[in-house]
From TrEMBL, chain A:
<feature type="transmembrane region" description="Helical">
    <location>
        <begin position="6"/>
        <end position="26"/>
    </location>
</feature>
<keyword id="KW-0472">Membrane</keyword>
<dbReference type="InterPro" id="IPR018624">
    <property type="entry name" value="Sec66"/>
</dbReference>
<protein>
    <submittedName>
        <fullName>Sec62/63 complex, subunit Sec66</fullName>
    </submittedName>
</protein>
<dbReference type="GO" id="GO:0031204">
    <property type="term" value="P:post-translational protein targeting to membrane, translocation"/>
</dbReference>
<dbReference type="Pfam" id="PF09802">
    <property type="entry name" value="Sec66"/>
</dbReference>
<keyword id="KW-0812">Transmembrane</keyword>
<keyword id="KW-1133">Transmembrane helix</keyword>
<dbReference type="GO" id="GO:0031207">
    <property type="term" value="C:Sec62/Sec63 complex"/>
</dbReference>
Automatic annotation (TrEMBL), chain B:
<keyword id="KW-0175">Coiled coil</keyword>
<dbReference type="GO" id="GO:0005634">
    <property type="term" value="C:nucleus"/>
</dbReference>
<dbReference type="InterPro" id="IPR011990">
    <property type="entry name" value="TPR-like_helical_dom_sf"/>
</dbReference>
<feature type="coiled-coil region">
    <location>
        <begin position="177"/>
        <end position="204"/>
    </location>
</feature>
<protein>
    <submittedName>
        <fullName>Uncharacterized protein</fullName>
    </submittedName>
</protein>
<dbReference type="GO" id="GO:0030544">
    <property type="term" value="F:Hsp70 protein binding"/>
</dbReference>
<dbReference type="GO" id="GO:0051879">
    <property type="term" value="F:Hsp90 protein binding"/>
</dbReference>
<dbReference type="GO" id="GO:0005829">
    <property type="term" value="C:cytosol"/>
</dbReference>
<dbReference type="GO" id="GO:0006457">
    <property type="term" value="P:protein folding"/>
</dbReference>
Length: 215, 207
């Protein structure tokens, strides 16, 4: 029969428990602190307006005097989700174009760790956001999650393109006005030259005509 | 940073009859966003399926109509009926620019650049230099490379209006995009000659 020597067994076990316990405490404390630190960081992007609209529509409050909240048709919910996806596309583009610059600046030490932390945080949040939108899209209409970002991408590109076209076309009235004035000025100048020319004789007239014909 | 599960509840409400979303807030950004949302909702209601179809394949009907309008415009232009040609091109442009937003933007750019370039030509034939210049610029905005006609047309219009320096800069940029396009090089030479002549005469107006 062997007898158990409780002392020599208990000591190593106690040692391991204390070790593991302290490691776990340290780890959880460390993580909590880190999470707190990143929670106090300023957000990379401003408020996500279309996301807030989408969620507000899902959580509409009942009108005063009525018990049930108003019913929002699915088509509006879909439109709101599409708007949210468009804004996401814009943010993805921003993140992608900022990434190389951000990394380079960090390596050179031109920006602090704070900025990098914020950037990484924004990247991670974006991933969660995309996953969320795909899930919502699939819930609203089967298989929409696969194409919603293609549509959103085209919408973002089309909106930007139409905006720049409108800007160009909007310049037309002002330019037209300028040109009318200028043309009138050129005509009076020309008439003056002609008149002056007639007092000095034929040679000057010919000169004036020559200048005009350069056009 | 905020908790991902939380959001700001916005003061939005829905109109029971028109289903338009409105807000009591005075925030300009929110109002603009809501306008965009309502417009998107309207255009979504016009399609058969519940959600916008993927960008590819494209609805061929509209492309055919736009092409037809451009052909009509070209015919009118060849016959010398310039105002009529401009009308056709304008209709075509409206058609192309009112495509639903989720259709491929590359396609819209292609169609729009051709129509603007043609309309610029028709305006130039009527000596409407301002409209010609603006349309050619819009065409270039839609399609920068492989669009030497539009580059040349705006350059020509600027020269006609006496904006020599601007024309020089514009053609220079055009040459960067198009390589050594003979028409553009020719116009640049003309501009440089004109610039010299104007310096000799020291005239304020250089045409």
């Amino acid at each position: 029969m062997f007898s158990v020597d409780w002392w020599s067994l208990g000591l190593p076990l106690a040692y391991i428990t204390v070790l593991l316990g302290s490691l776990i405490t340290f780890s959880s404390l460390y993580r909590k602190r880190k999470a707190n630190a990143s929670a106090t960081l300023a957000p990379w992007f401003p408020q996500h307006l279309s996301k807030d609209i989408y969620l507000s529509l899902l959580h509409l409050e009942p009108e005063p005097g009525q018990e049930k909240p108003p019913v929002v048709p699915d088509s509006i919910i879909r439109a709101a989700l599409l708007r949210r996806a468009v804004e996401d596309i814009r943010r993805i583009i921003q993140i992608r174009s900022a990434k190389p610059a951000c990394t380079a600046l960090l390596q050179r030490g031109s920006v602090g760790d704070d900025l990098n932390e914020r950037f990484l945080r924004a990247e991670k949040d974006m991933e969660d956001e995309l996953r969320d939108v795909v899930q919502e899209a699939n819930a609203l209409s089967e298989g929409w999650g696969n194409v919603i970002f293609q549509s959103a991408n085209e919408i973002a590109a089309n909106t930007a393109f139409r905006k720049s076209l409108n800007e160009i076309q909007a310049k037309a009235p002002a330019e037209k006005e300028w040109w009318e004035k200028r043309r009138a000025f050129i005509q009076t100048e020309f008439m003056k030259e002609l008149e002056e020319g007639s007092t000095y004789g034929d040679g000057a007239v010919a000169e004036g005509v020559k200048k005009k014909s350069k056009k | 940073m905020e908790d991902p599960e939380s959001f700001t509840l916005l003061p939005v409400s829905i109109d029971p009859t028109s289903k338009a979303i409105t807000s009591t807030s005075h925030s300009r950004a929110l109002q603009a966003e809501l306008t965009a949302l309502n417009e998107l909702h309207k255009s979504l209601k016009n399609i058969e399926s519940a959600v916008p179809p993927p960008p590819i394949p494209v609805n061929q009907k509209r492309s055919a109509q736009i092409n037809k309008l451009r052909e009509s415009g070209n015919d009118a232009f060849r016959k010398g009926k310039h105002p009529e040609a401009i009308k056709f091109y304008t209709l075509g442009l409206q058609m192309a620019l009112t495509r639903p937003l989720w259709e491929p933007s590359g396609l819209v750019r292609d169609e729009v650049s051709g129509l603007y370039a043609n309309r610029a030509q028709a305006h130039m034939a009527m000596s409407n230099w301002v409209e010609g210049a603006v349309d050619a610029e819009a065409s270039v905005e839609a399609k920068k490379a492989g669009n030497s006609k539009a580059w040349w047309r705006r350059g020509r219009c600027l020269v006609e209006m006496g904006r020599i320096q601007e024309a020089k800069g514009w053609i220079g940029r055009g040459l960067e995009m198009e390589g050594t396009e003979a028409d553009l090089v020719g116009l640049l030479k003309e501009i440089e000659a004109k610039e010299k002549k104007c310096k000799v005469f020291e005239k304020e107006i250089c045409i």
